[in-house]
Amino acid sequence: MRTAGLAALFLIVSATVTAQTPRPALLVVNKGANELAIVDPSSMKVVGRVPVGEGPHEVATDGRLAFVANYGARTPGNSVSVIDLATQKEVKRVDLGSHRRPHGIVVNGGKVYFTTEINAPDTAPRGPDAPPPIGAVNCYDPVSQQLVSWSTGESGTHMLVVTKDGSVIFTSNIRSNSVSAMQRGGKQEPQTTTIAVGKGPEAIDISPDGREVWVGHSQDGGISIIDASSKKVIQTLAIGTKRSNRLKFTLDGSKVFVSDLDAGEVVVLDAKSRKEIKRIKTGGHPEGILMAPGGRVFVALSDQGVIATIDVKTLEVTSKMESGPDADGMAWVE
User: Fold this and answer.
1) Which residues contact 100 (CB under 8 A, 6 or more apart)?
2) Which helix (H) or strand (E) holds 108?
3) Which of 39, 181, 243, 252 could form a disulfide with 26 if both were Cys (CB 3.0 to 4.6 A apart)?
4) Whether pLDDT at 81 is above 70
5) 0.85 exceeded by the pTM?
6) From CA 178, how far away is CA 304, in angstroms rounded?
7) Residue 66: which of 56, 75, 74 has the closest Cα?
8) Which CATH number is 23-124+132-245's, of 3.40.190.120, 2.130.10.10, 3.90.1150.10, 3.50.50.60?
9) Digit-coded pLDDT (tens) for 193-243
């Protein structure tokens, strides 16, 4: 009887552990709680919460590990949390040293790429006339645990995307009104092309076919469309957003979703015609956007600590779930 009882207990514990690590899973960083929330997308319930560094803004994953950029709050953050998704525990906190304010983060080819807004020791003069800090793109290898950094030469380096083959990194530089295109070649330093765009570029994404990079201007209501091959702006759109914060292509590349933080809505554009399709009222302040398989679009409403689900076909909000305070960046685990 004792053996049978232990076996039954083992089965119950195993089932509980399995339920806590669903596949697929939605990962959400809650800035106000300094945590990563793990969500079961079938029930849309939080099944795990993992403490990370202060002010986490973005998250990326390779399917086994999650990497959280700890941006910080009043004090600039300088770490990336590494979370084992099976155990739901932080297994390492990568110290970035003088590189501070880590933000946009992507996993590509086994490497973790992320931006830092401050790329120097804290010795610069302070005050209104002080020069703005210069940003960087960083590459972390989880296997060798080596960290390499490349300066963009620009200010406000915030979000980034990487081509599928990892050959080019595009970053948005908010304070410099530019995009940096970093062409990589072997072990040499990347060759950087600086592309002038609209005012306050922040939101950025690359089309699924890799041909275009779209950049949302948070301060003038526009979008710059960059030809990824020539690294030149080929079109500028005026979509009238008050503060565009994130921009994402649908998985099939047919539509582009733009979160307008101050207007409380998501603007949907036709990627081919460049025309507006709809403005979706979210009932909150939309920030992070994630495109999930099966036609669901997840939007983080930071002021409510809620994840809204939008149907990609009907373009209607179909449900909402509580995630945690200041929900923002998200990632998808298959």
Assistant:
1) 72, 76, 77, 78, 116, 117, 118, 122
2) strand 99-108
3) 39
4) yes
5) yes
6) 31
7) 56
8) 2.130.10.10
9) 999 999 999 999 999 999 999 999 999 999 999 999 999 999 999 999 999
